[in-house]
């Protein structure tokens, strides 16, 4: 059961989303969306027989709301200092690179290779332990961090089925089409 407008809105979102993104799950906040997406990622891995994939990977300086999963994957020191964390969470390096990108206009030229930091985490933990990687295309909570030019699909770096790249910014911080172009497996909008 649900209100007809929710179904109508879901259908309209699916129309503007890339092909294949046609399952829409509404929540009440960004934080709840993050927790839901992380849980879906873990449950999905288990459902396809990859139950060892439970680790959540975030990014330094990332903000993913106030739930335990979001705080654990978030990379803001003061938030991390005061909260107990979901075990096993680890973090990619952030993309704030003033030495190379100071005074950039628009998207900075340098830094797309920082996505390769995921390979370091895969080498450290094993791909078979990673359920989800969650990143903001445009980070906003420790200063606005515009992503460098270029894009590397994070799921390819982990191998196999991933996870929950974070797309909260698709409808707000980025132009809609930019957000959608950056889509991976699971997208979070608010
Ligand atoms: C990237 C990101 N994720 C999650 C959240 C949490 O959203 P909410 O405040 O609606 O719980 C925010 C809030 O600013 C955010 O910027």
Automatic annotation (TrEMBL):
Transferase listed as a keyword:
yes
GO MF annotation list? transaminase activity
Species classification: Bacteria, Pseudomonadati, Pseudomonadota, Alphaproteobacteria, Hyphomicrobiales
Task: List UniProt keywords, sorted A-Z.
Answer: Aminotransferase, Transferase
Q: What is this protein called?
A: Adenosylmethionine-8-amino-7-oxononanoate aminotransferase
Instruction: Establish whether keyword Transferase is in the entry.
Output: yes
In Pfam terms, one family for this protein is Aminotran_3
Q: What domain of life is recorded for the organism? A: Bacteria
């Amino acid at each position: 059961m649900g209100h007809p407008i929710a179904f109508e809105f879901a259908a309209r979102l699916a129309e503007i989303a890339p092909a294949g993104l046609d399952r829409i799950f509404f929540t009440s906040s960004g934080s709840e969306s993050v927790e839901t997406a992380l849980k879906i990622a873990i449950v999905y891995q288990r459902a396809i027989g990859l139950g060892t994939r439970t680790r959540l990977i975030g990014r330094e300086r990332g903000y993913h709301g106030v739930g335990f999963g979001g705080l654990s994957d978030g990379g803001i020191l003061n938030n991390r200092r005061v909260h107990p964390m979901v075990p096993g969470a680890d973090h990619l390096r952030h993309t704030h690179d003033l030495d190379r990108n100071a005074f950039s206009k628009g998207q900075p030229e340098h830094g797309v290779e920082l996505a390769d930091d995921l390979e370091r985490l895969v080498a450290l933990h094993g791909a078979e332990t990673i359920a989800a990687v969650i990143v903001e295309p445009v980070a906003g909570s420790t200063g606005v961090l515009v992503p460098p030019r270029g894009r590397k699909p994070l799921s390819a770096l982990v191998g196999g089925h991933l996870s929950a790249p974070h797309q909260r910014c698709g409808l707000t911080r980025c132009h809609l089409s930019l957000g959608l172009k950056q889509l991976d497996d699971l997208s979070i909008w608010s």
